[in-house]
Amino acid sequence: MGASPVQVLRHIDLPLTGRALLVAAAFAFTISLGEFGATALIYRPEYPTLPVMIYRYLSQPGGLNYGQALALSTILMVITGAGMLAIERFRIADIGEF
C-alpha cells in the first residue's frame, strides 16, 4: 500500500512479534544461565559462570566455600525467578498465551 519496508517492520511486524521476541529472549537467558553442561565445556578460567563457580566452591572443603556456593545459588535463583516473572508479565491474561 505504499509503505517502505522500514515502516512495515515498525508498524506491523514488531507489534505482532514484539512480545514473542521478548519472551523468547528472557526464556533463553534464564535457561542458559543455569546450564552447567555447556558452560563447563566452553568457559574461560578468567570469566567463570555462576554454575561453574558454584561447582568450584562445592568441590572445595570448608564452611566458607559452602556458604559462598549457597550465596551464588541464591543469586542464580533470584535472577532466574526475575526472568520467569518478566515472562509472565508479557503474557496476555485473557487468552492465556503470549
What would your notes on this structure say?
The protein has four helices and no strands. It is mainly α and 98 residues long. It has one domain (5-89). The longest helix has 29 residues, at 5-33. The mean pLDDT is 82.
Radius of gyration over all CA atoms, rounded: 20 Å
Order of helices and strands: HHHH
Major sheet description = none
Mean pLDDT: 82
Q: What fraction strand?
A: under 5%
Domain count: the total is 1
Low-confidence stretches: none
Give the proportion of residues in helices. Answer: over 70%
What is the count of helical runs? 4
Number of strands: 0
N- to C-terminal separation? 29 Å
Overall geometric form? elongated
Structural class: mainly alpha
Quick rundown:
This protein has one domain.
Which helices and strands appear, and what pairs or packs with what?
Blueprint: H1 5-33, H2 36-42, H3 50-59, H4 63-89
Core attributes:
single chain, 98 residues, 4 helices, mainly alpha
